[in-house]
Amino acid sequence: MSSVSQTPSPEERGTALLCCNIMDILYHFYRFCSPRIPSLPLAAALLLMAALLSAAALPMRAQALPPPTATVSGEGLTLPVYEGFEALAPLFASAGDTTLIVNFWATWCAPCVEELPYFEELTRQRGDAPYRVVLVNLDFRRQLQRRLLPFVKDRALQSTVVVLDDPDANAWIDRVDPEWSGAIPATLVFNKWKREFREQSFTRDELQTLIHSFTGSTE
Amino acid sequence: MKRFMLAALLLPLLVMTLNAGGYGVGDKATDFSLKNVDGMMVSLADYNNAKGFIVIFTCNHCPYSVAYEDRIIELDAKFKPLGYPVIAINPNDPAVQPEDSFDEMKERAKEKNFSFPYLFDDGQKIYPQYGATRTPHVYVLQKRGADLIVRYIGAIDNNHSDADDVDEPYVADAVSALLDGSEPSVTTTKAIGCTIKKQK
To answer: Which residues of chain A make contact with B134, given a CB cutoff of 8 A?
Structure first.
């Protein structure tokens, strides 16, 4: 996201507004409103923050998830739902420069919940590091509203959460990794150079070390 | 002497390697003596008339196990009279998962009116021998002479969330095949389940 470079003259406003640069729009909005609203510097600062936040979210969008087949909403949240492994399968074929950290978990799985903060910490400390955490939830279909959404809200999870709803697990467990027996938690970490699957719970240090071996840039 | 020492060194290594992954289909399974919820010790050798067993590592706390409780009761109702009784074993350490304590097991067995023994793997010696990694995890054993041969390892069926949507009842199919004197067509399957709880 580039920021504004020149200060346009008043005549240029009309054309400048057509351009999609958020900073341009903000600038012109500021110029337009400043004589009319006294508390504008504050409003402008808020808008600027919003713009920066959406810019920060752009790399997330660049690493697009496969299109979900449904969504589940509630508690002010909407989560993508993949009904059938096939819909989510492209995620596992998307080995690129960015390291994907895919953790299989459920709200009822105590060791999963115990290690979630370590995955969240990775997401929060990410900065420019080229990795991304995807939490693949395996809660039962009928518990998504009642358990999963309140859980994601209460813990204010920052990592990407998606729901995999495919009860025929024998048909897809091997497609994630042949080493996986099906017990959760389980975690797959991969990029185009390297791939590791772990059927285990992580301590904070174990997870940091593993991710460090992929990116060389955590901590 | 040297050779003997080499063998003595290698043998435990070999045994460890063989045990590491637990049983595969075709392996001989060991019998055990574990405490049932009624306080009695149960061994597979006690079942003189059985043709085999449906050994299921399961527990109280795991939602997947709970989802399968009624289907486990059905398996026992269907196959015990035909010579394949269900033997349920709780492999979890109650110090890690208090809901899976022996007292809670008794409670659950009573609530659900379990028609099969629900045994406690006290000291967690048995599940590693079998190689169970999750609950529920099924081993279908067939008696051959004095031996118990593993004939199927895996899931109960292919839909944990709805028994009505099952189109591959793996365990029932495997046992039916054995009863017909044929080979089960599916011998290993996987399923999502809870890890077996042990001290770190």
So the answer is: 181-183
Whole-prediction pTM value?
0.79
**Angle subtended by helix axes A204-215 and A110-124, to nearest 10:** 40
**Closest alpha carbon within chain B to A137:** B192
Cα distance between residue B84 and residue B179, in whole Å: 9
Compute the average pLDDT of residues B145-167. Answer: 95
Alpha helices in chain B (DSSP H): 2-20, 63-79, 102-111, 126-130, 170-179
Domains observed in chain A: 10-58 (no CATH), 70-215 (3.40.30.10)
Q: Is the dihedral of CA B166, B171, B174, B179 positive or negative?
A: negative
Compute the C-alpha angle B10/B11/B13, nearest 5°.
65
Tokens of A163: 């729901």
Q: Mean pLDDT for each 10-residue chunk of chain A (219 residues)? A: 39 40 55 58 66 51 79 96 97 92 96 97 91 96 94 97 97 97 97 95 96 74
Nearest to B192 by CA among B94, B65, B95, B81: B65
Q: At what angle do helices B63-79 and B170-179 cross, to 10 degrees?
A: 20
Q: Scanning every residue of chain A, which has its alpha carbon at the shortest distance from the alpha carbon of B61?
A: A108
Nearest to B137 by CA among B122, B121, B123, B148: B121
pLDDT score, position B200: 78
Q: Is the dihedral of CA B72, B77, B79, B85 positive or negative?
A: positive
Distance CA B16, CA A172 (A): 30
Indicate whether B131 pLDDT > 90. Answer: yes
Q: How far is B168 from chain A (nearest CA, A)?
A: 9
Q: How far is CA A131 from CA A95, A128, B157, in A?
A: 11, 9, 37
Give the C-alpha distances (Å, rounded to integers) separating B137 from A116, A181, A193, B174, B176. 25, 10, 35, 15, 19
The pLDDT confidence band at residue B7, using thresholds 50, 70 and 90, is: low
Between CA B173 and CA B189 the distance in angstroms is 13
Please state the ipTM of this predicted complex.
0.84
> Pick from B63, B165, B190: which is nearest to A140 by CB?
B63
Classify the phi-psi angles of B38: left when phi > 0, otherwise alpha if psi is within -120 to 50, otherwise beta. alpha
Q: At residue B17, does pLDDT exceed 60?
A: no
Architecture of domain B22-195: 3-Layer(aba) Sandwich (3.40)
